[in-house]
Design a protein that fits this description.
This protein has 135 residues and is of the alpha+beta class. The protein is built from five helices and six strands; from the N terminus they run ααβααββββαβ. It has helices at 3-12, 19-29, 37-44, 53-66, 108-114; strands spanning 35-36, 69-74, 77-82, 90-94, 100-103, 126-129.
Length: 135
């Protein structure tokens, strides 16, 4: 997803375009890792004097709900990244810098075998550790 596709999705869902929202989406388009609301706030403060943490957090959760961003819990804090919209995969996530690497193996075949009598609707599989740069 690119910035324009995300903005089009916002409009399609009835949300208005703002320069701040475009800036927020653009920030994640250019990152290849999970980032926090604090990271985004620090990025935006120079351009938007007085921007509040609440504004940032509300928009991040909206983007997450609309499928523009995906989120994870990392070190006790919510982190966000641009949603991968191509093929099914999972992620390795660096606990230090938030960089991600796609994992193409999915453990669901084995898990479905163990849970035959259960109806699974969805799943999320993430592996945490440290990337080569942070080791």
């Amino acid at each position: 997803m690119n910035t324009q596709e995300a903005l089009d999705l916002l409009k399609q869902k009835g949300y208005k375009y703002t320069e701040k929202r475009e800036h927020m989406i653009h920030f994640f388009v250019h990152e290849n890792r999970y980032r926090t609301a604090k990271d985004l706030l620090e990025n935006m403060e120079a351009d938007y004097d007085g921007i509040s943490f609440d504004t940032i957090y509300r928009n991040l959760h909206l983007f997450d709900q609309l499928g523009i961003l995906e989120s994870t819990e990392l070190n006790g804090e919510k982190h966000f990244r641009l949603k991968c919209d191509h093929h099914h995969h999972h992620h390795f996530i660096c606990k230090n810098c938030g960089v991600t690497k796609e994992i193409h193996h999915c453990p669901m075949e084995q898990i479905n075998e163990e849970l035959k009598q259960f109806m699974i609707e969805d799943h999320k599989f993430e592996v945490y550790g440290f990337c080569p740069s942070c080791r």
